[in-house]
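Hello,

Our lab assistant flagged a job as stuck in the queue for most of the afternoon. It eventually completed. Since we weren't sure the result was trustworthy after the delay, we are filing this so someone can double-check. Below is the sequence as submitted and the structure that was eventually returned. Let us know if re-running is recommended.
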Amino acid sequence: MKEKEPNKQDEPKQEEESSEVKKTIDDFGVINNAFDFRSDIQYLTVIGSIEGHSVLPPQDKTTKYENIIPQLVAVEENKHIKGLLTILNTVGGDVEAGLAIAELTATLSKPTVSFVLGGGHSIGIPLATASKYSFIAESATMTMHPIRMTGLVIGAQQTYEYFQRMQGRVVDFIVRTSKASRETVNEYMNATGNMANDVGTILYGKEAVEIGLIDEVGGLRDALAKLKAMISESE
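-- returned structure --
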């Protein structure tokens, strides 16, 4: 029996689909319906440095906030999406960009779960607490420290007050979206004996849960199970 020859007309279509998937990965860090998998959960990854209004060097691994914000709006608007799972492995980055993403996540009406994998440092902490429930891997870490700024800083009272107010915005958000108290957050942020040549605290998985920053130690299976349960409760 003669074998059916491959349809060469399908090849350009397959190449186009493959190119589109690669573009999605490069631009947004997500794969839509990988392996023809249909899901009512949106998966969002936040990796590397959070890039804000300034473009970071090309060798840096970044998450661009202008790519994340439309996705979050789409999650809220798309009736087929029932929940959001955010996976974090970030060193932090632009404070206002990070807070913008965190505020949008916190104000979604749909169930949201975050999972800190590897690290959720600096402005990555509000991004983790922004979800309605949060997990952290046992081996993951979170670094709490005061706000830092690069570039020219004017040595004046107004500069100090600006730093204080910006720091207050971050602390307010963390306290509002987690079980950690304001006193605990400020204490760990300004600790002087926990980090070499720096101010702040490195928290490991269980420690982040113990102070109320994160809800639970767990893995991907736990995060997905919790999100699916939340979706079922909301329906």
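-- support follow-up --
The delay was a queue issue, not a problem with the job. The result is valid. The two ends are 54 Å apart (CA to CA). The chain has one domain: 20-234.
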